[in-house]
Amino acid sequence: xxxxxxxxxxxxxxxxxxxxxxxxxxxxxxxxxxxxxxxxxxxxxxxxxxxxxxxxxxxxxxxxxxxxxxxxxxxxxxxxxxxxxxxxxxxxxxxxxxxxxxxxxxxxxxxxxxxxxxxxxxxxxxxxxxxxxxxxxxxxxxxxxxxxxxxxxxxxxxxxxxxxxxxxxxxxxxxxxxxxxxxxxxxxxxxxxxxxxxxxxxxxxxxxxxxxxxxxxxxxxxxxxxxxxxxxxxxxxxxxxxxxxxxxxxxxxxxxxxxxxxxxxxxxxxxxx
Length: 273
Hints:
Helix content is 30%, strand content 35%. It is of the alpha/beta class and 273 residues long. The strands form three sheets. Strands 1, 2, 3, 4, 5 and 11 form a six-stranded mixed β-sheet that branches. A hairpin with a 7-residue loop joins strand 13 and strand 14. The mean pLDDT is 95.
């Protein structure tokens, strides 16, 4: 079985995304931090890692962009997973019993409208993890509280889903990346992720991006991050449609390398849907 490391407790959305990608025959390895996910794969304690990099409502998870650069791992897949927050309680607890709602701050914010409607007087209590809040309710037998988390978390900890689809917007998706020590050769529609920095001269970024435009290569994501060792200089993370094994993409990257001061391919992998 494939061991997949993820951040959070059992039942986390990352674990659900791993199962969505690989199927039920995976061995989940919960990790307390994103750093530990990368370390677990690097050290061979897991064959794969899965980390979120972007949410359709909240934007990019910058920490994981930084960790991609710090570790010598490769992206081997992606999955775009619908995030459905459910109001979860101990068996027997009813809505009128709930005085506090626990979850990750982002989940609380994404459910603010429905929480106000259903539980206008309840206190919102931030926790480190959505699934962890469900585990806490169970372990501490909190009968006047509820958690916002996945249905998978409710099933794992033997809890009751009081209300489904608590998120205010149905367009709540998170994009996860699968990490490994060795690259894959994608079959079919592919995506490639790279990172580079430019020389500080006029038009440098324009010229770098032009290598893709001139070859009709679709850029699907551009993200800038500060260069940690060079003040007021930046790294550019770019995703594009295509594989490094395709001639026109390989030619674009060869040209890009000539224009950049730093360049690295983070991975070519099957394109998620």
